[in-house]
Amino acid sequence: SSMYKCPYGYCIPLKLVCNRDMDCPSGQEESNCQHATCRYLFRCKHDQNCIYPTTLCNQKHDCTNSKDDEQLCHVRECHALCTCKGRSLVCSNTNLAVIPFLTKYILSITFNHNGMQIWSNNNHANSAFVIIYKLNVSGNSIERIEPKSFNNFATLKYLDVSDNRLHLLERYSFLGLKTTIQISLSGNPLSSIVSGAFLSVA
């Protein structure tokens, strides 16, 4: 049932149980919340209440603090050659040349040892990755990073482009990486880095 029966009283929606507000006459639904479990239900990340599956992805935030009941609603099906867990995508040794789109809210992408030859806006669905944290495209055959192709990666912290075929880093190669704290380029036959290649990098 999606309802909770208040002792000696009326029923309230299950999402109101353990939400730190007293909805039953004596607030019984707020007791023992530290031991509450959400078996077969959705547990809000930063709340103690449980959400019934039929209220997920209904364009209304039932998780008051985290709002995570609506965050993964636009996630596409995981590519058959990849592994997806939550907001992470792993595609290794697949020969794919383009990163499959999962969600714009993705946190981590591991796309190593595949068939990518050029890093450009065209090989990552030209998506604005709102909160991406880590990107690993090591061990591909990337020969060129197109200028300004990292414009949609403003939150990226860790970038691994090691073990590719980069000879040259052009101006604006990493433009857009405003919060990146580590870029790994080891294992590339780099012979020239043009001034401004790392412009905007933190």
Q: Could you explain the architecture of this structure?
A:
The chain contains no helices and 14 strands. Strands 5-6-7-9-11-13 form a 6-stranded mixed β-sheet, with no helix packed on it. The protein has a two-stranded antiparallel sheet with strand order 1-2. The protein has a two-stranded antiparallel sheet with strand order 3-4. The protein is an all-beta fold. Helix content is 0%, strand content 18%.
Secondary-structure blueprint:
Blueprint: E1 3-5, E2 11-13, E3 42-43, E4 50-51, E5 83-85, E6 88-90, E7 108-110, E8 118-119, E9 134-136, E10 144-145, E11 158-160, E12 168-169, E13 182-184, E14 192-193
Parallel strand pairs: 6-7, 7-9, 8-10, 9-11, 11-13, 12-14
Antiparallel strand pairs: 1-2, 3-4, 5-6
